[in-house]
Design goal:
The chain is of the alpha/beta class. The chain has 2 domains: about 5-35 and about 155-330, Rossmann fold (3-Layer(aba) Sandwich), CATH 3.40.50; about 40-145, Rossmann fold, CATH 3.40.50. Helix content is about 35%, strand content about 15%. Helix 1 packs across helix 2. A 6-stranded mixed sheet has the order 1-2-10-7-8-9, with helices on both faces. A 4-stranded parallel sheet has the order 5-4-3-6, sandwiched between helices. A two-stranded antiparallel sheet has the order 11-12. It has helices at about 40-55, 70-85, 100-105, 125-140, 150-165, 185-195, 245-260, 265-280, 305-315, and strands at about 15, 25-30, 65-70, 85-90, 110-115, 140-145, 175-180, 200-205, 240-245, 285-290, 315-320, 325-330. Bound molecules: pyridoxal-5'-phosphate. The site of pyridoxal-5'-phosphate has 19 residues, from helix 2 and helix 6.
Length: about 350
């Protein structure tokens, strides 16, 4: 039985959204993962991985956990390590926001900054993973959860899907899920298969992410997408994959805020856009669930900042539609985000 703050992980609200797409005959629900204590869906994976490793004796109180993360997984691990009396070294790169570094330090994490990208790939991800390996090999009683390949990352999300399935009595036609390590999508997919549900998963990936075989390109929105295909990926995880670019993420976030008063992170904006792009093609009467992985407060200087938006997308026109909704005129935007 869980006690303390970790007992508040999971069992997040599943709310019906009636304002996002009233023109469609669809029952729409959102799983609000921002309600986890560390602020994101990653609390589930962090707790499941570390508590399983403690249980199996792989680690013990006093062990040192080392992981590469610049965002939610780092914060989730920092929180759980603090609670479970584990040391935590978070390997970050210069793109990590000062706010996230401050949160990580507040939970007691040691920050290890990788200053240069990998010389061959030009990517920070590879450089951070090389650094994790180096630290793991040199620090006694240390352990790398390796969120990109650890099946426990996916297993944590059997519970995520179980909560959705129980709330909707197994009647879910479409599940929209963003991807990075593929832990969430794989765990949900495994649950769907194991329980014989007919739910079809709509994967939502970033334009410029390589997970579903697209060429690598510069991406601005953190959280979703990946510059290398995670080991947890499998080609049959989803019925479809919808790619969403950075500006579409921003627009999705603002639509969610204006229509439903939900201040969510970038991947939730991506999921919103992916749903709105495809809603017209779904059979009438469908039940859809959108997973919203985190909250918007950590993106106030970016996704919700007019100056940042103009800086990255050019002279994007701000127009008020007849419904009094903010609308970004993409015809004036610079799609490269330069
Ligand atoms: C904000 C956000 N959205 C989506 C994802 C993707 O989740 P997963 O790593 O389980 O694929 C992450 C993962 O870190 C995230 O932080």
């Amino acid at each position: 039985m869980k006690t303390g703050i970790v007992s508040t992980i999971g069992n997040t609200p599943l709310v019906e959204l009636t304002r996002l797409a009233p023109e469609h005959d669809i029952r729409l629900f959102a799983k609000l993962e921002a309600f986890n204590p560390g602020g994101s869906i990653k609390d589930r994976a962090a707790f499941h991985i570390l508590s399983s490793a403690l249980h199996s004796g792989t680690i013990a109180p006093g062990s040192t956990i080392i992981e590469s993360s610049s965002g939610n997984m780092g914060i989730g691990l920092a929180q759980i390590c603090s609670y479970l009396n584990l040391n935590f070294i978070c390997v970050v790169d210069p793109k990590t926001t000062q706010q996230n570094i401050t949160i990580l330090k507040a939970y007691g994490a040691t920050i290890d900054l990788v200053a240069d990208p990998d010389p061959i790939t030009g990517e920070f991800l590879q450089a951070r993973i090389d650094r994790v390996r180096q630290l793991r090999d040199s620090i006694p009683d240390s352990w790398w959860p390796d969120q990109y390949s650890n099946p426990l990352n996916a297993a944590a999300h059997h519970q995520t899907m179980a909560e959705i399935a129980q709330a909707l009595e197994n009647n879910i036609d479409y599940l929209y899920c963003s991807v990075s390590t593929c832990g969430t999508i794989r765990g949900c997919s495994e649950y769907i298969q194991q329980h014989g549900l007919s739910t079809r998963i709509m994967a939502v990936d970033a334009v410029g992410s390589v997970i579903f075989g697209q060429p690598s390109a510069k991406r601005l929105i953190p959280g979703h997408g990946a510059s290398r295909r995670p080991e947890l990926f499998q080609p049959d995880l989803s019925a479809e994959c919808i790619h969403v670019d950075d500006l579409e993420c921003v627009v999705g976030c603002h639509q969610l805020l204006q229509r439903e008063a939900i201040l969510a992170g970038g991947s939730s904006g991506a999921v919103t856009t992916a749903f709105l792009k495809t809603a017209g093609m779904l059979p009438p009467g469908s039940t859809c669930v959108l997973i919203f992985p985190d909250r918007g407060e950590r993106y106030l200087d970016t996704l919700y900042c007019d100056v940042w938006i103009e800086q990255h997308f050019g002279a994007v026109a701000y127009l008020w539609t007849e419904n009094k909704e903010l609308f970004y005129d993409q015809s004036t935007a610079n799609p490269q985000g330069q």
